[in-house]
Amino acid sequence: MKKYRELVELKGLLREKKINYEVLATTLQMSLSALSNKINGKSIFNILEVNKIAEFIGIEKEKISYYFF
User: Fold this and answer.
1) How many domains does the chain have?
2) Is residue 64 within 8 Å of 36, Cβ to Cβ?
3) 3-class DSSP state of 42
4) Which domain holds residue 49?
5) CA angle, corner 23, sides to 58 and 3, nearest 5?
6) What whole-number distance in Å separates Cα of residue 66 and Cα of residue 22?
7) CATH number of the domain within which 19 lies
8) Does residue 51 lie within any of the structural domains?
9) pLDDT, tens digit, 9 for 90 and up, residues 2-46
10) Cβ distance 45 to 38 under 8 Å?
11) Residue 21 within a domain
């Protein structure tokens, strides 16, 4: 499977901020497996999820595209 640079960067940011997938899945109100599929590139985040993640972990609006697109 292809590695998406954006998702690799997002995973690194989550590790850096010590945010685990369980906490993020709860914040997004989705199952851990759904989050895992999205963060591993098997499915995609919708714009509302992107905005929630950015707000939750403190990604500046100008840098959202670096982590998601």
Assistant:
1) 1
2) no
3) coil
4) 5-58
5) 75
6) 23
7) 1.10.260
8) yes
9) 678 999 999 999 999 999 999 999 999 999 999 999 999 999 999
10) yes
11) yes
